[in-house]
Amino acid sequence: MILRGYQSRAVNFLLPLKRGFVVAPAGSGKTLIAASAASSVFRPFDRVVWLANTREQVQQAKDAIGKVTWPNPVEFDVRCVAGRPDVSDADIVIVDESHHLPALSWSEVVIKASGIVWGFSATPWSGDWQRDDSLKAFFEGNFITIPRSEVLEGGSITPGIVHTHDLDCEGEFQADIDREAAVLVADRRRRFRFTPIHELQRRALWEVTQQKVRLNPRRNQRIIELANQGQGVLVLVGSIEHGELLSAKIRNSVVVHSKMGLRKRKAAIEAARHGALRCMVATSLADEGLDVPRLETVILAAGGRSAGKLEQRTGRVMRPSEGKLRGVVHDFVDRGASLAHSQFKARMRTYKKLGYTIQK
User: Fold this and answer.
1) Is 299 helix (H, G, I), strand (E, B) or coil?
2) For 85, what's the count of Cα atoms within 13 Å in the CB-facing half-sphere?
3) Bridge-based pairing state of the strands 327-332 and 279-282
4) Greatest CA span in the chain, whole angstroms?
5) Cβ atoms within 10 Å, residue 182
6) Taking Cα atoms as reference points, which of 302, 341, 298, 301 lies closest to residue 168?
7) How large is the C-alpha radius of gyration of the chain?
8) Is this structure's pTM higher than 0.90?
């Protein structure tokens, strides 16, 4: 396997380090970088533990491991972090999507490692300085960032274009949202007496806003129309119920989520990968690690403002594939709900930062 220039640079950066972190865009080949670096320092009888966030990422890791040459004998343990594997005796620990590391469920596993620990993520920084500082401290400040422009020029990812859909009048749903949120807060104040009132208000406002956005008939109709066009479509939803509502009217589509069972989920992803399934309607399961290069269009039926999650989600359709010229993103202005509209504006800033072309 011949590495691209930026991949070789990342490998060479890691080799002398006991703690190191590679920041690279989705589609840049982080799993291949990790496998190549690990194989370069591996000694016979070393134990390699590869930690991932999802079962799909576990399979991607196994595929990457198979693409490089290893001295024999070699012992691999490729696991989801949720299984809380023991890494205390590991010689090399690879932590995929290691922006999760500040979370207690992750740190409790990885902190026990005494050997090499290398982290990989497209979106390591959360904007929370305490969380970000803990990540920097664990990896001893050893970070290398691969510019998105270099990966784009090398052909590992495609250009992105964003189409925005403005379907509502300004503040159209806001009076109803405010009224319903106030009812929720009044009810919850009695049940959650020790939760600050501003936190109850924040949660209620977001909960009601999400519901109004999901039930917006004009918005849902546009999602269905867009999803019924073309091939390789991914619709990202915030709930299984919303996904099922949309999928019922999208031809040759399947709702993909973590509760459907591994076998059915794997079959759906494989069908999409080979073109037998035209459209996947997916929950947050698809936020990370979904590797289906045939996907060309992502429709953000669920918004949010997290720049990291947005880069991960839109990155699902930026992987190159035969005949693909660009990845297409469809987003919604949601002018009728002030919180949802504010989050749309935050997403627009992220699109510009990523260098996507925006068409209104």
Assistant:
1) strand
2) 20
3) unpaired
4) 67
5) 14
6) 341
7) 22
8) no
Chain length of the chain: 360
The confidence score (pLDDT) of residue 289 equals 65
CA geometry: angle 126, 57, 114, nearest 5 deg? 70
Mean pLDDT, contiguous 10-residue spans, the chain (360 residues): 90 97 92 92 90 85 85 81 92 94 94 95 91 95 95 90 96 95 92 90 94 95 95 93 96 90 87 92 78 92 85 90 92 96 95 92
Task: Give first-to-last CA distance, the chain, whole Å.
Answer: 42
CA distance 236 to 299: 6
HSE, side-chain direction, 13 A CA sphere, residue 309: 16
CA–CA gap between residue 169 and residue 242 (Å, rounded): 23
Query: Are 238 and 301 contacting, i.e. CB atoms less than 8 angstroms apart?
Result: yes
| pLDDT of amino acid 27 | 85
Structure tokens that stand for 103 in this block: 């979370």
Kindly report the backbone phi and psi dihedral angles of residue 46, in degrees, each rounded to the nearest multiple of 5, phi listed first.
Answer: -65, 150
DSSP 221-254: HHHHHHHTSSSSEEEE-SSHHHHHHHHTTSTTEE
Q: Which residues pair with 77 in a beta bridge?
A: 49
pLDDT on residue 156: 87
Q: What pLDDT shows up at residue 60? A: 84
Token representation of residue 12: 């060479």
Listed residue (210, 263, 264, 259) closest to 237, CA to CA:
210
Burial letters 124-157, b for 16+ CB under 10 A, else e: beeeeeeeeeebeebbeebebebebebbbeeebb
Per-residue model confidence (pLDDT) at position 346: 94
Q: What DSSP assignment string belongs to 51-87? A: EESSHHHHHHHHHHHTTS---SS-EEEEEEGGG----
